[in-house]
């Protein structure tokens, strides 16, 4: 079984310096030209595309938000029709949740996790490429439908029976449901890749208690995706079946039940919040350690909190259904379980506060966003505790109070860390620093704009404004606060415009970053910025939780991997002991072809059930093409 | 109630009380249930405010307090950790105690809010896209009647509403009286509340129910018990016969122009069941599910072009001559 | 940053079996999420079972023989499947070829049986929510069965070509592993579909 390297194989123990770099680059680079680009399986290339695409959807979703705020800025405005407004709020929610928030977090993981664990590529790189294409096609499918006036208009959780064929006889809900399938396939694929990358591709010596906190966060997130998303896939598939072939899952006259939908959706939908938030906490931990100039206090506490949050997040979906007429005692228990999740979240916050307290903070833009995160997220978490209470929820459920709450949690808990992460990791990805001056403006506009936009919504909800109304009458007296909120939204939007300007400007004119501009501690900073195709010339050996702080003079490495074909080092699960030199796939066009075949299948099957018949063979062919050995040397070992 | 809570209340209610459409605010409780909920809400709000301020203070102090010199090497040995660990775990325990305490507060509030009274006045509310059918059902059929978008209840007496949906999911919400409850297709829900004070309370559908979800409001009018009894007695009766020639003409047109296909008017030939019952439309305060106040002008505008005012609703635009319109309006106004 | 070589891994193997290898963990991950899919579908079945006063709705329970025959065949298939695992570990190409052909034949036989099972469900997908969930669950499992049969066939063909190199034996063992999942998933589904309606 043991297959030692061939004696005449070129390995990285006989090459050195520039010659080694050049040789590895030749082996690992993405082929040139358009076809080459389409074949890329480099996690950095795919990750960059993923990040850019997700931000493009953020831009689109943000424009929708501004349109809504214009419509609601005053009473009885006719800027948008009811029909357009309903499409727009559905598109905004669906885009932000499924095409921005989850994908952007996975995108950062795709780019960063392999670097942070010290390997050359993500596990299953072709699946990774496939995942990106599915995400892209699913997003385009949704937005092209919207452009054709077939944008979903039933809300981002598409409650039945409103979304059933009887009450929405257009294709709009099908578009929504199938977009879910696209993005879930993409997200599930990435999750499996991340889990295997973290389990098996860690650098030698990176034992479980030396894994960076961001990587831990992405690991927990990946498990959440794997256990939450099947639920929404069952839901969306059964919805499509109800609409296409007359199944009766949600038809209360034939034994179905509308609440089955809500259970299935929220069993996914609540963990979804943590799928978005936990990566944010990972970013916070990474940024905080670097700029507080000390490791995060309570490393094991943070990890246990992440895991506890993950488990608890599956036990509180019912708090989205407190006003559906559930048994009272049951609802009361879900109040307790929902509030209990404040404990692990609180523990993490305490660890971060202690880190900042004990550290010597350097106030650069990423840290500003982390501080903004703490201020905003804690408020959102506390309004979450209020919403978890059954009696309070009966009043605030489906009002602007809840809208305020989840924007505080999602924007505060995920977008602020994310923008901080952009400032933090942009130098690694682009090789240049973002402008600090613009960064500060960016932060203050975002912080002020956000609070002006969303704080008034708490009050609006309490004084009776339900969510998802396209207009309201003047005598409701919601006008002033709505106008204020709309103004805040504009300022908030401006902060993102500034981020865009900063990125474009800095790509050309930014200060060169160098390997480790922040003097950070984790492995992604041990290579050049941007990293070469092979990530590291030699795989690092980890002897400390903060390897670059423990020894910033020299990097211990392993040698002996092939320098003439793609090879990664597999290590053992707990102790990260080297086990196998495993081949890593070459670039391939098949993932793209498979994604195209799958797209045809998915889109076809909202129009006719026969798509299952004619759509399957092309998929099968592309998958066989994907896995069939290409005859290259690595496959023939 | 602490001063800051009062200040907050004043600040918030100053917006909500001025409305002439009726009160629609959690912060303006006029019922037993809404009062209890607000009480629970304030306990939570107080705890939340204290926690948030504490976190921000610790954050602020942590940021500005004097630090060691920046050129000192990174400290990887973490002597601080053990003591800090105890503090963090202590705070974790405190957090647990707080959330468990709040859970009990919440459950106590929940029990009060959802307490059932067997002697409650029962009415049935059926949600439609996008209006509310209100059925006062009594043991004998001639004590039962149907109305729409306006609910009158006696003060001081528990009211039980049975909630059903004719189509999609809606949610019944009168924040000044109590929290909301969904109307779910194929399921019967119920909600009990008691109005403490007489008044007009606005309610609105709170679950997105399609195109005109924004225009699915209703009014709850709480009346002193004797006044309520009189109203109920009156509502039981069939519609007034038109008193004059124009009204009679209107009644005839109501049938001839197809209105009667969808609308019911008790005691007449009009027996349609698709739209709201109009037996006593003249005495209702709003039309089109709280979209407009009920005046001859607005009613005329509504009949002339319902799709302009509330696009997508089931009522078609009827081609009416102006004299026909005047007659129909005259007739409907008399249906007090 | 200066690099110091502290270890040489040139002597490590280039592939491995089971938890040592990457694809094994990938298969594990997909089984976890697909298993969750089954669990959710079972949950949906039980929910509908709980909210409906009569079950099955407007139909008699499925005929027992197809599902029962499948259980028998699935359980028996574990024997050749495990044997496949052993000969793959021994890298015995001739036996692996025979085994893969046998396993593919068993899979195809099960697909045929599955066709009978659909025909003997005694309800259509559009009869009632009962019919819908039964068809969904059976369809979900059939997708897994068909996928694995397809995989087995492709792998069998592969092992008859020049690509039948040692590292492919690891793929064979992963396929064995996945088949066990398909078998294991069927047992509770069989109880649910065929016996719960008879309660």
Give the topology.
The complex is a heterotrimer of chains A (637), B (336) and C (199).
Chain A (H helix, E strand, L loop, with lengths): L16 H12 L4 H7 L3 H30 L9 H35 L8 H23 L24 H29 L12 H33 L12 H35 L6 H14 L15 H13 L1 H17 L6 H23 L2 H7 L3 H31 L5 H27 L16 H31 L37 H4 L3 E6 L7 E5 L6 E6 L6 H15 L6 H17 L10
Antiparallel strand pairs in A: 2-3
Chain B lengths: L2 H14 L15 H33 L16 H33 L7 E8 L2 E6 L8 E4 L1 E5 L4 E7 L4 E3 L8 E3 L5 E5 L5 E6 L12 E7 L1 H12 L8 H12 L2 H4 L23 E2 L4 E2 L2 H9 L1 H4 L12 H13 L2
Parallel strand pairs in B: 1-5, 4-10
Antiparallel strand pairs in B: 1-2, 2-3, 5-8, 6-7, 9-10, 11-12
Helix pairs in contact in B: 2-3, 5-9, 7-9
Chain C lengths: L1 E7 L13 H30 L12 H26 L3 H27 L9 H31 L7 H29 L4
Helix pairs in contact in C: 1-4, 1-5, 2-3, 2-5, 3-4, 4-5
Structure explained in plain terms:
The complex is a heterotrimer of chains A (637), B (336) and C (199). Chain A has 637 residues and is mainly α. Chain A has one domain (17-636): Cytochrome c oxidase-like, subunit I domain (Cytochrome C Oxidase, Chain A, Up-down Bundle). Chain A is 63% helix and 3% strand. Chain A is built from 19 helices and three strands. In chain A, strands 2-3 form a two-stranded antiparallel sheet. In chain A, a hairpin with a 6-residue loop joins strand 2 and strand 3 (578-583). The longest helix of chain A has 35 residues, at 82-116. Mean pLDDT of chain A is 94; it is low at 1-5. Chain B starts with a helix and ends with a helix. With 336 residues, chain B is an alpha+beta fold. In chain B, the strands form four sheets. Chain B has a five-stranded mixed sheet with strand order 3-2-1-5-8, with no helix packed on it. A three-stranded mixed sheet of chain B has the order 4-10-9. A two-stranded antiparallel ribbon of chain B has the order 6-7. Chain C has five helices and one strand, in the order βααααα. In chain C, helix 3 (93-119) packs antiparallel against helix 4. The model of chain C has no long low-confidence stretch (mean pLDDT 94). The radius of gyration of chain C is 21 Å and the shape is elongated. Chain C has helices at residues 22-51, 64-89, 93-119, 129-159, 167-195; one strand spanning 2-8. Chain C is 72% helix and 4% strand. Chains in contact: A-B, A-C. Chains A and B meet through helix 4, helix 10, helix 11, helix 12 and helix 13 of A and helix 1, helix 2 and helix 3 of B. Strand 1 of chain A pairs parallel with strand 1 of chain C, so a sheet runs across the interface.
């Amino acid at each position: 079984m043991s297959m030692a390297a061939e004696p005449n194989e070129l390995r990285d123990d006989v090459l050195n310096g520039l010659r080694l770099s050049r040789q590895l680059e030749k082996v690992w680079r993405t082929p040139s030209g358009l076809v080459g680009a389409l074949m890329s399986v480099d996690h950095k290339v795919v990750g960059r595309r993923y990040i850019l695409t997700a931000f493009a959807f953020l831009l689109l979703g943000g424009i929708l938000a501004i349109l809504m705020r214009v419509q609601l800025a005053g009473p009885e405005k006719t800027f948008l029709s009811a029909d357009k407004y309903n499409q727009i709020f559905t598109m905004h929610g669906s885009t932000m949740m499924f095409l921005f928030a989850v994908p952007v977090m996975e995108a950062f993981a795709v780019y960063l996790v392999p670097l942070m664990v010290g390997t050359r590529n993500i596990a299953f790189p072709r699946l990774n490429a496939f995942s990106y294409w599915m995400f892209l096609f699913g997003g385009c499918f949704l937005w092209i439908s919207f452009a054709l006036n077939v944008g979903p208009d039933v809300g981002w959780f598409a409650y039945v029976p409103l979304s059933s064929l009887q009450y929405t006889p257009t294709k709009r809900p099908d578009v929504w449901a199938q977009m879910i399938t696209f993005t879930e396939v993409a997200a599930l694929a990435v999750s499996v890749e991340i889990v295997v990358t973290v389990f098996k591709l860690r650098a030698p010596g990176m034992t479980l208690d030396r894994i960076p906190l961001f990587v831990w966060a992405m690991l927990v997130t990946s498990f959440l995706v794997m256990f939450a998303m099947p639920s929404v896939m069952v839901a969306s598939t059964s919805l499509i079946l109800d609409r296409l072939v007359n199944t009766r899952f949600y038809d209360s006259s034939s034994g179905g039940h509308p609440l089955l939908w809500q259970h299935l959706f929220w069993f996914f939908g609540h963990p979804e919040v943590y799928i978005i938030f936990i990566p944010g906490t990972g970013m916070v931990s990474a940024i905080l350690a670097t700029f507080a100039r000390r490791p995060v206090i309570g490393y094991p506490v943070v990890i246990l909190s992440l895991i506890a949050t993950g488990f608890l997040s599956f036990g509180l979906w019912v708090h989205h259904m407190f006003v559906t007429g559930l048994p009272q005692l049951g609802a009361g228990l879900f109040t307790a379980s929902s509030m209990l999740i404040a404990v692990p979240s609180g523990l993490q916050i305490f660890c971060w506060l202690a880190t900042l307290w004990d550290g010597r903070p350097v106030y650069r833009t990423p840290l500003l966003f982390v501080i903004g995160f703490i201020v905003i997220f804690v408020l959102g978490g506390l309004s979450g505790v209020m919403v978890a209470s059954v009696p309070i929820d009966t009043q605030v459920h489906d009002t602007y109070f809840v809208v305020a709450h989840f924007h505080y949690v999602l924007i505060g808990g995920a977008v602020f860390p994310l923008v901080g992460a952009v400032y933090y990791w942009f130098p690694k990805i682009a090789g240049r620093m973002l402008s600090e001056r613009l960064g500060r403006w960016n932060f203050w506009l975002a912080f002020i704009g956000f609070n002006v936009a969303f704080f008034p919504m708490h009050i609006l909800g309490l004084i009776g404004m339900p969510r998802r109304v396209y207009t309201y009458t003047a005598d409701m007296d919601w006008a002033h606060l709505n106008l204020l909120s709309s103004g805040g939204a504009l300022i908030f939007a401006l902060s993102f415009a500034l981020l865009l300007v900063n990125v474009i400007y800095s790509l050309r004119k930014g200060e060169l970053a160098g390997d480790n501009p922040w003097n950070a501690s984790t492995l992604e900073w041990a290579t050049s910025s941007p990293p070469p195709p092979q990530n590291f010339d030699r795989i690092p050996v980890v002897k400390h939780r903060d390897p670059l702080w423990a020894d910033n003079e020299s990097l211990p490495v392993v040698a002996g991997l092939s320098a003439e074909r793609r090879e990664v080092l597999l290590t053992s699960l707990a102790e990260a002991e080297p086990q196998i030199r495993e081949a890593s796939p070459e670039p391939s066009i098949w993932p793209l072809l498979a994604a195209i075949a799958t797209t045809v299948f998915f889109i076809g099957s909202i129009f006719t059930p026969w798509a299952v018949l004619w759509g399957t063979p092309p998929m099968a062919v592309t998958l066989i093409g994907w896995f069939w050995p290409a005859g290259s040397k690595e496959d023939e070992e | 109630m602490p001063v800051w809570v009062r200040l907050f209340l004043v600040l918030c209610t100053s917006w909500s009380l001025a409305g002439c459409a009726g009160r629609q605010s959690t912060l303006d409780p006029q019922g037993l249930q809404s009062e209890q909920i607000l009480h629970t809400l304030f306990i939570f709000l107080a705890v939340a405010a204290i926690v948030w301020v504490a976190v921000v203070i610790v954050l602020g102090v942590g940021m500005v307090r004097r630090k060691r010199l920046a050129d000192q090497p990174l400290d990887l040995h973490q002597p601080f950790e053990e003591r800090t660990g105890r503090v963090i775990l202590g705070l974790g325990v405190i957090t647990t105690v707080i959330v468990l305490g709040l859970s009990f507060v919440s459950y106590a509030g929940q029990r009060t809010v959802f307490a059932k009274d067997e002697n409650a006045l029962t009415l049935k509310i059926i949600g439609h896209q996008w209006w509310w059918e209100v059925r006062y059902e009594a043991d004998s059929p001639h004590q039962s009647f149907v109305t729409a978008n306006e609910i009158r209840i006696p003060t001081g007496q528990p009211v039980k509403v049975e909630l059903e949906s004719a189509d999609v999911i809606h949610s019944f919400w009168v924040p000044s009286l109590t929290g909301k409850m969904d109307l779910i297709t194929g399921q019967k829900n119920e909600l009990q509340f008691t109005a403490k004070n007489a008044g007009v309370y606005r309610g609105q559908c709170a679950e997105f129910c399609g195109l005109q979800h924004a225009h699915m409001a209703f009014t709850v009018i709480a009346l002193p018990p004797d006044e309520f009894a009189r109203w109920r007695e009156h509502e039981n009766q069939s519609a007034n016969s038109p008193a004059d020639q124009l009204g009679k003409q209107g009644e005839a047109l109501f049938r001839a122009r197809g209105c009667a296909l969808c609308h019911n008017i008790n005691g007449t030939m009009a027996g349609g069941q698709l739209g709201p019952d109009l037996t006593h439309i003249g005495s209702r305060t709003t039309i089109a599910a709280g979209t407009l106040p009920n005046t001859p002008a607005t009613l005329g505008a509504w009949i002339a072009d319902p799709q302009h005012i509330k696009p997508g609703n089931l009522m078609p635009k009827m081609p009416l001559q102006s004299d026909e319109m005047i007659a129909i309006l005259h007739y409907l106004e008399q249906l007090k | 940053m200066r690099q110091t070589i502290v270890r040489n891994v040139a002597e490590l193997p280039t592939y491995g079996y089971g938890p040592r290898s990457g694809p094994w963990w990938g298969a594990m991950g997909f089984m976890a999420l697909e298993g969750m899919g089954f669990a959710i579908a079972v949950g949906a079945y039980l929910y509908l079972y709980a909210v409906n006063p009569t079950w099955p709705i407007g139909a008699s329970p499925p005929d027992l023989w197809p599902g029962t025959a499948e259980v028998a065949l699935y359980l028996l298939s574990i024997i050749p499947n495990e044997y496949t695992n052993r000969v793959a570990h021994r890298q015995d190409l001739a036996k692996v070829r025979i085994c893969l052909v046998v396993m593919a034949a068993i899979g195809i036989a099960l697909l045929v049986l599955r066709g009978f099972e659909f025909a003997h469900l005694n309800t259509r997908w559009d009869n009632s929510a009962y019919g819908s969930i039964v068809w969904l669950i059976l369809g979900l499992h059939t997708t897994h069965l068909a996928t694995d049969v397809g995989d087995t066939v492709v792998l069998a063909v592969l092992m008859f070509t020049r690509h039948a190199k040692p590292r492919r034996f690891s793929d064979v063992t992963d396929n064995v592993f996945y088949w066990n999942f398909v078998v294991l998933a069927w047992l509770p589904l069989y109880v649910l579909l065929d016996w719960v309606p008879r309660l």
